[in-house]
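User: Design a sequence. Structure:
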């Protein structure tokens, strides 16, 4: 099974909550981290198998756009271990 990381960035908290809820309900993914970027931008990160992450990001993006401002959405299939360690921490890298 190939792991993936999915990211959705919104402007505003309500859109982020809506995106996170839709991601968790749409597929078998783990919500890993929410990062407040500043200036109202917030990014939520999920992980799981590639197909599940793609489905979750699609659902989350659609939901965020309905109630707030979707800034960006992206899926990284098979991210490098160093990237996972740098952005998600040692514990997340060990789960792989």
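Assistant: Done.
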């Amino acid at each position: 099974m190939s792991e993936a990381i999915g990211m959705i960035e919104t402007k505003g908290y309500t859109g982020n909550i809506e995106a996170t809820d839709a991601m968790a309900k749409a597929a078998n993914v783990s919500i890993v981290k929410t990062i407040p970027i500043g200036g109202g931008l917030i990014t939520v990160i999920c992980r799981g198998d590639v197909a599940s992450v793609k489905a979750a990001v699609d659902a989350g993006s659609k939901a965020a756009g309905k109630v707030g401002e979707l800034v960006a959405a992206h899926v990284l299939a098979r991210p490098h271990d160093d990237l996972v360690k740098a952005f998600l921490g040692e514990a997340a890298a060990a789960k792989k």
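The longest strand covers residues 3-11. The mean pLDDT is 91.
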